[in-house]
Every structure is written in structure tokens, then in C-alpha cells.
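Late entry, written up from scratch paper. The run itself happened at the end of the previous shift, but nothing got recorded in the book at the time, so transcribing now.
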Amino acid sequence: MGLDEANHPLFVATRKPPSLLVFDTQAGTRTADLPIASDADDLFYDAKRKRLYVICGDGVVDIVEQKDADHYERAGEVRTVRGARGSRKAIDHDGDAFVRRTVFARFERSIANA
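Output as recorded:
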């Protein structure tokens, strides 16, 4: 799960079915439902870039752009390896959080510029 603290949407990645659900925490309603790769493990929200990074065990990091509080669009993906489980959030040079690397079963690949 992830949260946009400024605008209050809550982001939830589900596995069955593989979806990114967005909820308005103030109204208590679901505002978006997007398909994502299967086997979601982690989700990170980058407020500066208005992007979500969904790390999926299917071998994909899905990148979703927030157009506004209620509209989201899949912007692309970064291929990893099937079975990738862990990831970590890093801080870039200007202090903003985003996914820097996904940790694979046997190696790491940088996705800082995804």
C-alpha cells in the first residue's frame, strides 16, 4: 500500500485479480482500478514525480502516472526477473523518495531513471 499524503488517495496493489486500486480516504470511495502485472509485492509513491512504482513477482516493475487525484495511467514497465520479491525505497539527490533499485533473487538492477 501507499499513500499520497497531500491529496489523501490510498493506493493498494492486489494479486487476485492483479490490480492497482485507488481509494479516496476522505470520501471512503474507490476512484480508480488499473490492471498491473501479477504477484504484486511492494508499491511506492513518488510525490514529486506523481508516479507509482509497483514491484511485481511476475518480473515487472509497473510505473503508473498520477494525472490528477482521480485519474491514473500506466506509463510503462521495467523488466526484472520472475520471482523478484524485495525492493527498497531510496532518497535521490534532492531529497525526494523513489524506487532506486529492485533486489532480485540473485542480482540487482538499477531502475533509478525509470
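The radius of gyration is 13 Å.
(Scratch paper discarded after transcription.)
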